[in-house]
Amino acid sequence: MRAVVWHGRRDVQVDTVPDPTIHEPTDAIVRVTSSGLCGSDLHLYEVLAPFMTSGDILGHEPMGIVEAIGSSVTNIAVGDRVVIPFNISCGHCFMCDQGLQSQCETTQVSEQGCGAALFGYTKLYGQVPGGQAELLRVPHADYGPIKVPDGPADDRFLFLSDVLPTAWQAVQYAAIPKGGTVAVLGLGPIGDMSARIARHLGAGTVFGVDLVAERLARAKSNGVEVFDWSSFDKPADLVEAIKAQTGGRGPDAVIDAVGMEAHGSPIAKASHAATAVLPGTVAAKLMRKAGTDRLAALHLAIDLVRRGGTVSVIGVYGAMTDPMPMMTMFDKQIQLRMGQANVRRWVDDIMPLLVDDDPLGVDTFATHHVALADAPSAYSMFQAKSDGAIKIVFQP
Ligand SMILES: NC(=O)c1ccc[n+]([C@@H]2O[C@H](COP(=O)([O-])OP(=O)(O)OC[C@H]3O[C@@H](n4cnc5c(N)ncnc54)[C@H](O)[C@@H]3O)[C@@H](O)[C@H]2O)c1
Ligand SMILES: [Zn+2]
Ligand SMILES: [Zn+2]
Fold it and tell me: In Å, how far are 128, 218, 350 from 358, measured between CA atoms?
């Protein structure tokens, strides 16, 4: 089969690789019809390179048709249309029972000290071959796959794999009071969808911050009050501008949908560049121990949120020893929640919004549909945020 394969920093190629096969009775094989390209893939493309191995198959947002099932898979059948959650979870352990599927104790990558295995996501998360491919082996298919109805085009359901439950969790964790205010930092797919969901679930005012014109424009057209980060000299000016619209206090909640690749910290950029030229194991240690991540967006969130408000971190962070402004966090009495999305937990809440009408606008959410063969240029376009690319979907 053909698959998107990581070869090195900023080097993905479409290779012919062996077809996956059933290994366990709980496996399934899915023929992929659509597969998203995510901001998380961009971390692998460059910054998380130390945790990648040449030959890794990328992708964690697939859907398709079940082609084969193992002997103990009874919840889905050959020919079913399914969406595959990006986290691999068993559905019956202590963590899964509490709706913490991203911490599943059956698939936890304990040798790395990490939570549930993920498709297409580095050694830290099990090095499981991903879904930007013609075929995908799905472990724990007796629980994970989400059966969806025939009819609407793939995009109606595809984002159940990641964007929708991730944004839903970001909003739930933000605990926005009814009619209250929330600021969403980063208006990529995750921030954009978080803003839509916040409005749908009854937030009063949604502010959005980014520095890419078409992302700001799209959020604005969905009723978000947008701020262009690049038009402010320093973070404090942006904080003041938003505070001025919230009675001087700051929003009730802030969602950080940026993560570790924030624009705004030249020093971190130098450290990222350093990890790119060091040998793999040294670079991996530096990434984990030396605190090379950019915390610009997280610091902005902490400064911006009102006293006693909530910061919901949905952007991905990586290093162990990044300093946090504990004095401010304690003094402002900030509530902080974060983590990988527990995809399966939110599916039943979201599904009713996908069956009749399309209140979240998922049908027109993707800006680009491209053939798998065009993956190399799609990755560089998404990283450069060129050609108006906000969400790219591969169609193998
Ligand atoms: N927690 C989870 O389960 C989960 C799931 C999916 C994605 N993610 C993470 O969510 C984050 C966003 O994903 P995405 O697909 O939307 O990626 P993206 O890269 O398209 O979006 C990030 C956006 O942040 C903007 N940005 C950069 N610096 C900023 C700053 N200082 N202030 C405001 N905006 C800034 C960028 O211009 C971009 O539009 C990534 O870190 C991704 O890894 C987490
Ligand atoms: Zn994703
Ligand atoms: Zn489990």
Answer: 33, 17, 11
Cα-Cα-Cα-Cα torsion 134, 160, 315, 366, nearest 10 degrees, comes to: 70
Domain locations along the chain: 2-162+342-395, 164-338
- Nearest CA residue ID for atom 14, ligand 1: 39
Residue of 164, 184, 258 with the most ligand 1 atoms within 8 Å of its CB, for mutation: 258
Residues with beta carbon inside 6 Å of ligand 1?
38-40, 42-43, 162, 166, 185-191, 209-212, 215, 229, 257-259, 262-264, 296-297, 314-316, 340-341
Rounded CA gap, 36 and 131, in Å? 9
Which CATH superfamily includes the segment(s) 164-338?
Answer: NAD(P)-binding Rossmann-like Domain (3.40.50.720)
pTM (two decimals): 0.94
Nearest CA to ligand 1 atom 26: 186
Specify the fold of 2-162+342-395.
Quinone Oxidoreductase; Chain A, domain 1 (3.90.180)
User: How do residues 73-117 score in pLDDT, each as one tens digit?
Assistant: 999 999 999 999 999 999 999 999 999 999 999 999 999 889 999
